[in-house]
Amino acid sequence: MTEGRLQQQALDILKGADILFSQEHRQDIALVKNHSIALVFLPAADIPRFVGEGRVDLGITGKDQICEYEALKPPTKDTSLKEVIDLQYGYCQLQVQVPKDSPFKDVKDLIEHNISTSFPGLTRSYFGALEAQLLDPSGDCSVVPQLKTKIKYLSGSVEASCKLGVADGIVDLVTAQQYSLCIYNVPRSLLAKATKITPGKRAPTIMPLDDPDWVAVSAMVEMKKISDGLADCGVEDVFDMNPNNSRYTTRPGNDY
After folding, report:
1. Most buried residue, 32, 53, 162, 205, by CB count within 10 Å?
2. Whether the Cβ atoms of residue 68 and residue 122 lie closer than 8 Å to each other
3. Which of 217, 227, 225, 216 is nearest to 179 (CA)?
4. Calculated CA dihedral for residues 158, 12, 91, 127, nearest 10 degrees
5. How far apart are the first and last CA of the chain?
């Protein structure tokens, strides 16, 4: 169970799955009242190791932490991780970044310079591949003999390292597009226009209403699009819901 800024979303998911527990102050382990489960609260970066080494059976953490764990410790048969379900929250992207006034205009310009990050494994792999490509553009060289780019590990405040002269660039997380569940009523004559804004992640769900000239639509939508144009499409009764809660039913043959 992850600690930190995304913990509340994880707690909401457990509540929606009818997992009831109480956590004592400053205690890292909580017993579930209505199931034979114990919850262990850990820093997000530690969860892949605890799961990979078999110390806990199931973990909630970010894909960034899983990728970093596997970059530092390549998975084996006994330590590999398997994603059971994508919980659809906390979206972000790991990016190479420089200040706006930086002389570095291309990521390759940062080779042999100082990079600060909380993800040293992924950063070494990325710049290692860049250096290998420069050494052998044909692609035959996949590993550089020794990384020339200087990777500096920071546990936090990575974005401040350039201003303080610690680094020339950083590798850090930035928030990616956020989705919510949008439900609304719209005239059939305007349905095509509305669903261009709310196409859903696969397709919108469209249901008839008692009024034959109207339909109800539900779709996963980028949050900003709800206010950026949906109101101009003739829709009514708009309901925007952040889908934090979920219930996952175990069936024969599933791992969990």
Report:
1. 162
2. yes
3. 225
4. 50
5. 16
Phi, psi of 236 (to 5 degrees): -135, 165
pLDDT at 172: 95
Q: What letter represents residue 15's amino acid? A: K
**Residue 251's pLDDT is what?**
40
Question: Would strands 92-97 and 169-175 be described as parallel, antiparallel, or unpaired?
Answer: antiparallel
Rounded distance, CA 34 to CA 22, Å?
A: 11
Q: How far apart are CA 121 and CA 118, in angstroms?
A: 9
Phi-psi region at 90: left, alpha or beta (left = phi > 0; alpha = psi -120 to 50): left
pLDDT at 147 (0 to 100): 93
Q: What type of residue sits at position 63?
A: K
Token pair, residue 126, equals 């990325």
Rounded CA gap, 120 and 151, in Å?
7
238: Cβ–Cβ under 8 A, 6 or more apart, which residues? Answer: 182, 183, 184, 226, 230, 231
pTM exceeds 0.85:
no
The series of mean pLDDT values per 10 residues for the chain, 256 residues long, is 74 90 86 94 93 93 93 86 85 91 95 97 94 80 78 92 95 78 90 88 90 92 66 81 49 40
